[in-house]
Amino acid sequence: MAFNLTLRTTKGNRLTFTELDNNFLYLKDRDIVSAGIIGSDLVLTKEDGGTFSVPLSGITASDTYITGTTFNNTTYDLTLNRNDGGSITQNLAALASDVYVLSGVYQPTTGVVEFTNTTGGTFNVSGFTTGMTNYYTTSANLTNKTISFDRTDTSNAYDVNLSGITVDKYSTTSGFTQDITKTITHNFGLVGDGVYDISVKLRDITTNEEIGGSIDNFTSNSVDITLSQTLTSVRVVIIG
Q1: What is the 3-state secondary structure (H, E, C) of the chain?
Q2: Is the Cβ–Cβ distance between 154 and 142 less than 8 Å?
Q3: Are 239 and 216 in contact (CB under 8 A)?
Q4: In this predicted model, which residue has the larger pLDDT, 39 or 139?
Q5: Dihedral in degrees, nearest 10, Cα atoms 32, 34, 37, 42
Q6: Nearest partner of 184 among 141, 233, 109, 236, judged by Cα
């Protein structure tokens, strides 16, 4: 059964329930249930089996894409060229120089670090521990075998006792003749490559100055020393 659409503006008064039902049935028959392409037309099929077509021949589609890029080394403009003849330009001058952090200042009361970069700009990083005081060592003093360290908040903040550290040392006083080699015996009993693990210091007792010399022929219990000058009293200290 076919139904017609009844409008109140056409009838001139309110619609009956039957007329309202018939309107819904009329519209239901015009619901689109399927669509398909036939030739260059879009064909839509309604609920009642009827069809109507929409011509697509006047509709064109184009794929727009980048065909090339150019970069201006003077202005730092990067241009993207499209296949439709258009283009997009972006200035990259902000990336022309290497920007990096130069320094940072930590505020212990707020837990914020303010960093300064090479452009003069700053940025903050927060979330660090607050309420702390920055203490650090300022100096150290050796007394006998104890090193005492001074800190920003107090003197002698902590000590390090070196009495447990032992060093093999041999010392002797001897005279040397210029360019004449003398063997100094230390009796450390060094083994293998350990014969080279010694330090030799020479001091002229007369002038109380350190002097240099040729030191070679390392053995387990001795070392050869040659001076370029004649000295009657030289203190030889060997540390193993």
Answers
A1: CCCCCCCHHHHCCCCCHHHHHHHHHHHHCCCEEEEEEECCEEEEEECCCCEEEEECCCCCCCCCCEEEEEECCCCCEEEEEECCCCEEEEECHHHCCCCCEEEEEEECCCCEEEEEECCCCEEEECCCCCCCCCCCEEEEEEECCEEEEEECCEEEEEEEECCCCCCCEEEEEEEECCCCCEEEECCCCCCHHHHHCCEEEEEECCCCEEECCEEECCCCCEEEEECCCCEEEEEEEEEC
A2: no
A3: no
A4: 139
A5: 0
A6: 236
The pTM for the full model equals 0.34
CA distance 226 to 240: 20
Tell me which residue has tokens 């022309």.
96
Place of tokens 């015009």: 30
Lookup: tokens for 234:
């030289």
Structure tokens belonging to residue 193: 């490559």
- Kindly report the number of other CB atoms within 10 A of residue 236's CB atom: 20
How far is it, in rounded angstroms, from Cα 40 to Cα 20?
38
Q: Across residues 118-125, what is the average pLDDT?
A: 88
